[in-house]
Amino acid sequence: MADRDPLISQKSFVEEIDYNEIHQIQVVGKGSFGVVWKAHWRGNYVAVKHIESEAEKKAFAIEVRQLSRVSHKNIVKLYGACTQNPQNRVCLVMEYAEGGSLYNVLHSRPFPKYTAGHAMNWALQCAHGVAYLHNMKPSVIHRDLKPPNLLLISGGTMLKICDFGTACDKKTYMTNNKGSAAWMAPEVFQSSNYTEKCDVYSWGIILWEVLSRRKPFEDKATAYTIMWAVYSGQRPPLLEDCPRPIENLYTR
């Protein structure tokens, strides 16, 4: 007997959306997971995240399960999933973030202007979303916090955490090497047992990044060299003229 589809098995967690109700407009993102479209559904703009390979279905099943548990202003909303249609398409229908990712704001050229106040506000909103996840029962550990997974809406004033394909419940035995090297806590890439503190480490790197407008470990050519540097105790450099209370937030 064939294995049960890991995403379809999650359908009890979320609304099943009729794929024919979705009117796709344009591609707004691509990655190893597949393609994200801006689309129109029931009078609203939404993001439709397509699964394009069998290998990604497990990660999407995790995303469905985790996003179906959460409801917070700083976490992207999941409306439902499309799993039953003649086209055999499998996708998630989520809140659309018209401002794109925080990463693009930080590093695209020409540089969009923002102030230290904007930077601290983004970091604070991210912290609020992470604190909500960690206070759930069981708590949820994101494991891949980074600016590409932080989306902006309302003219860049509201931040939303997205991409829960690597998130896990704390009760899960957590030794898998997930996340992206520049923002990854050393205990994660060492495959050690880790806790919510790995998200706190990633948040500290994000805070440094929004204040400095520099990519963390940008002088390192590969993920391996980044991980070796972090394992050896290297961290992003201290910022000149940064108030000590803020410096303490990203160095603790």
Question: Care to describe what's here?
Answer:
This protein is of the alpha+beta class and 252 residues long. The chain folds into 2 domains: 8-95, 2-Layer Sandwich (Phosphorylase Kinase, domain 1); 102-251, Orthogonal Bundle (Transferase(Phosphotransferase), domain 1). The chain contains 7 helices and 10 strands. It has helices at 57-67, 102-107, 116-134, 186-189, 197-212, 223-231, 244-251; strands at 15-16, 23-31, 34-41, 44-50, 78-82, 91-95, 140-141, 150-153, 158-161, 168-169. A 6-stranded mixed β-sheet has the order 1-5-6-4-3-2, covered by helices on one side. A hairpin with a 4-residue loop joins strand 8 and strand 9 (158-161). Helix 3 (116-134) packs antiparallel against helix 5 and helix 5 (197-212) packs across helix 7. The chain is globular, with a radius of gyration of 19 Å. The model is unreliable at 1-12 and 171-176 (pLDDT under 50). It comes from Ranatra chinensis. ATP binds at residue 49. Belongs to the protein kinase superfamily. STE Ser/Thr protein kinase family. MAP kinase kinase kinase subfamily. Residues 22-252 form the Protein kinase domain. It holds the Pfam family PK_Tyr_Ser-Thr.
Task: Describe the structure using short key phrases.
7 helices, alpha+beta, Phosphorylase Kinase, domain 1, 2 domains, globular, 252 residues, nucleotide-binding, Transferase(Phosphotransferase), domain 1, Prot_kinase_dom
